[in-house]
Design brief:
Protein name: GCC2 and GCC3 family protein
Strand order of the largest sheet: 1-2
Number of strands: 42
Helix content: 10-25%
Keywords: Signal
Distance between the termini: 185 Å
Shape: elongated
InterPro entries: Growth_fac_rcpt_cys_sf, Tyr-kin_ephrin_A/B_rcpt-like
Structural class: alpha+beta
Organism: Tetrahymena thermophila (strain SB210)
């Protein structure tokens, strides 16, 4: 029994020793915990996310509120508001860095607010020209003023005391001393491609270039030429090294490792499926599940899977003209943000970038800019395109999402209107407000050209007096009288039909009477004078001047 218990304990220890944590997590006390600078929303998923706002986190943080420390060379400007918000940290100005005391203070006094004066030293390659000063009354804090060393040189060590260019006495990594100046300055020449200097000995010799940069391995070394460095095979990488190809033991970011490096070979790395990736390149053999985040410009529809059939995170590309931050959690299209600041938020029902209501145009394809413009007077937009207000409606401002209908008694017949016109007296607006209609049933139909209500042809009266309850102010002219449209206001303005009849009767009577009288008189006279009566039906011959002239000429010839 005792042997069995010992075996179980040993087996448990072996199992614990074989437990493997996800990327960016370490085994602490038998469980996986996120490394500094990362936190996990759900410890069961073992997916660690990077802290925002240049912050870091205590190991094992499980909420974004755990990100309460500033990352290296960052200073506090604001504490985290609560357990679900991170602190806000700002990076030191270019060329400056925090001195060791400030870094320790920041780590010990978690959440304390500092200022830019904590950036009191210069980074390698810079010398200090002016010391940092803390805030004093109305005078704001100032970081150290750092000047870049000439000729790719650097100082021996960071300092908080004022320095000069003469303190730039060593070369930066990747350069070796080619000339020593009397003042103490050095002239530095670059090492062969990808080679680095092993130390800052200051020797005037290319043999100092004995190391290879990260992502390269040393295939040869000659004291007269320095290291010969070859790039690691595709997808693999390694630390600064003086070793051979086996130093390419890591995978680059957004690759996963299918085979670890051996004595004679580099790690075998494959690119992650489209849209997926990882925060850091894997450092141990795994599978496609190591592609556990969605890179910028994609959103996650399904998390990576290690058990069963391994699978990478399933990532969907954000719509055109939008992007997203890289993420390690399942989210939706709503995590994508359109470049255009005046575009609608993306959602399951809004899957393209378009201008928000009241705006129109082409959305910008450049981040933090806008191509959307406000719709002007007479126009509106509810679909990303500014359209003219239909007839019967109007808009008189900008950024209109709809158009207002004309009020009762008003109309407009043109699209894109900014106001409405009053209907004339005796009328009201038609359905749709695109025109008016006269109340009077005997009026001329309303038209925009005249825009008035008048009585129709052969009617008299005042059509402007008609309304909803009285619609027959225009009356028919009596006795078949006539009138032109709008000319007869009263009955007296109508023309009587009998005036035309009497005129014709009198004319016929007088003509007949005179004709008969004259005829009778002539007949009696001729009869009394025993003269034959004239046949009025005989034709009358008319002689033209030409005929008379010809006859006269003929007579003249006969007389001669």
């Amino acid at each position: 029994m005792r042997k069995l218990l010992i075996s179980i304990v040993l087996l448990g220890l072996v199992c614990l020793s074989w437990q493997q944590c996800a990327d960016y997590a370490n085994l602490v006390g038998g469980s996986c915990s996120c490394i500094n600078g990362y936190y996990s929303l759900n410890p069961n998923t073992q997916i660690c996310q990077q802290c925002p706002n240049n912050t870091s986190a205590v190991q094992g943080g499980q909420i974004v509120g755990s990100c309460i420390k500033c990352a290296y060379n960052n200073y506090y400007i604001q504490k985290g508001a609560n357990a679900v918000s991170a602190a806000t940290c700002v990076q030191c100005p270019t060329g400056t860095q925090m001195q060791l005391g400030n870094i320790l203070f920041r780590l010990l006094q978690v959440g304390s607010v500092q200022d830019v004066s904590s950036c009191a030293q210069c980074q390698p390659g810079y010398y200090l020209s002016q010391q940092a000063t803390p805030a004093n009354g109305s005078t704001p804090a100032q970081a150290a003023q750092c000047v870049q060393c000439p000729n790719n040189a650097s100082t021996l060590k960071p300092s908080t005391s004022v320095q000069s260019a003469d303190d730039c006495s060593i070369c930066l990594p990747g350069f070796y001393v080619s000339t020593m100046v009397q003042s103490g300055q050095v002239l530095c020449s670059p090492c062969p491609q990808a080679a680095l200097t092993a130390n800052s000995s200051g020797l005037q010799d290319i043999s100092d270039c004995s190391l290879c940069s990260s992502g390269f391995y040393r295939s040869n070394f000659d004291s007269s030429t320095g290291a010969t460095c070859q790039q690691c095979p595709a997808g693999s990488s390694g630390d600064v090294t003086s070793n051979g190809i086996n130093s390419c033991k890591y995978c680059q970011i957004n690759y996963y490792m299918t085979q670890s490096s051996t004595t004679l070979s580099a790690a075998t790395c494959s690119p992650c499926p489209t849209g997926s990736g990882n925060y850091f390149g894997p450092q141990q053999q795994g599978d496609v599940y190591q592609c556990n985040i969605c890179i910028s410009g994609y959103y996650m529809t399904q998390a990576s899977k290690k058990d069963g059939t391994p699978a990478s995170a399933q990532c969907q590309k954000c719509p055109d003209n939008s992007t997203s931050d890289q993420t390690a959690v399942v989210n939706s299209i709503a995590s994508c943000t359109c470049y255009d600041q005046l575009a609608l938020p993306l959602s399951s029902s809004q899957q393209t970038c378009q201008c928000k209501p009241g705006y129109g145009g082409t959305v910008s394809n450049v981040p933090n800019s806008t191509g959307c413009k406000p719709c002007g007077p007479g126009y509106y937009s509810n679909s990303g395109v500014c359209q003219p207000c239909p007839a019967g409606t109007y808009s008189n401002g900008t950024q209109n999402t709809s158009c207002k209908p004309c009020n009762d008694g008003q109309y407009n017949s043109q699209s894109g209107s900014t106001s409405c016109s009053d209907c004339p007296k005796g009328s009201t607006n038609q359905s749709g407000n695109a025109g008016c209609q006269c109340y009077d049933i005997n009026s001329v139909p309303w038209s925009q050209t005249s825009s008035e209500c008048v009585c129709a042809k052969d009617f008299y009266g005042d059509a402007t007096l008609s309304n909803e309850t009285s619609s027959n102010n225009c009356q028919k002219c009596p006795d078949n009288g006539t009138s032109e449209p709008g000319t007869a206001k009263t009955q007296a303005d109508c023309k009587s039909s009998s005036s035309g009849s009497n005129s014709g009767s009198n004319s016929g009577s007088n003509s007949g009477s005179n004709s008969g009288s004259n005829s009778g008189s002539s007949s009696e006279s001729n009869s009394g004078n025993q003269q034959p009566s004239k046949d009025t039906n005989q034709p009358t011959y008319l002689y033209s001047p030409v005929i008379i002239l010809k006859m006269f000429f003929l007579c003249f010839l006969l007389l001669i």
